[in-house]
Amino acid sequence: MKKVLLTFFSLTLVLVLAACGNNNTNNSANSAATNAPAADASAEPTTEPAAEPVTLVIGASPKPHAEILKAIAPLLEKQGIKLEIKEFTDYILPNTQLAERELDANFFQHKPYLDDQNKQNGTDLVSVTAVHVEPFGAYSKKIKSIGELADGAKVAIPNDATNGGRALILLAKNGLIKLKDDTNITSTTADITENPKNLKIVELEAAMLPRQLDEVDLALINTNYALEAKLVPTKDALFIEGTDSPYANLLVARPDNKDSDAIQKLAAALTSPEAKAFIEKEYQGAIIPAF
């Protein structure tokens, strides 16, 4: 009997000790879980928020400059750059407003004109990149060829220094006048050495020239103004500059922002394959990519 009781007591003790061991294990596990650091629900996400879009305010002539800018705007939007395009119908305000920081850049002029304006106005605007060439042409509503140009005919040219010289050079290359130096882009009427048809050359603001076609026999017109007047340079011009014209139109900025990321991305978009394809398709040779 004693042996039976001893055996029973031993089994009971083993069970009690086992139960205590399980409780200790569970308590340790619970304690570890309780003491473990909780996840920080307020922790910031690892992905940085998207940067605010950068807006560039660009001054441009309506045709073709503003049209080209609008065509490449989607390329820039993908890079976080929004274009605000301000259209100008003159050649003075885009440079004035750029110098006064009302614009971030402009797109309307060639380098000879930019150099002349910097010299006249004491500004230091700079070229960022060349985009396209607009061959300069001669137009008329009264004649179909220069052979029909009568003695004493009235010929209108732009009144600004560089485009006026450019017009005179084109007249000289087509045998209508002779100049002291037919490579001098700053030539004036005072530099004409021969005028066999006694042409009456009148100087007018460039933007007015298309509206004066009814009043003159011939007008030499910048392509952007010709396009605005619904003239097709490759069809309507009696004669036109060749593709070797040095008058590439430029993206222009200030020294303080020309190397900024946004301006450089704009320059890249303006000289991209997409820009080239748009220029060639839209203008059919009236505008020629310079890149």
UniProtKB/TrEMBL annotation:
Signal peptide positions (record): 1-18
Similarity comment text for this entry: Belongs to the nlpA lipoprotein family.
PROSITE patterns, A to Z: PROKAR_LIPOPROTEIN
Residue positions of covalent lipid attachment, annotated as S-diacylglycerol cysteine: C20
SUPFAM superfamilies assigned: Periplasmic binding protein-like II (SSF53850)
Cellular component terms per the entry's GO annotation: membrane
Record has Electron transport as a keyword: no
Cited InterPro entries: Lipoprotein_NlpA
Protein name: Lipoprotein
Membrane topology term: Lipid-anchor
Keywords: Lipoprotein, Membrane, Palmitate, Signal
Presence of keyword Cytoplasm: no
Compartments in which it is found: Membrane
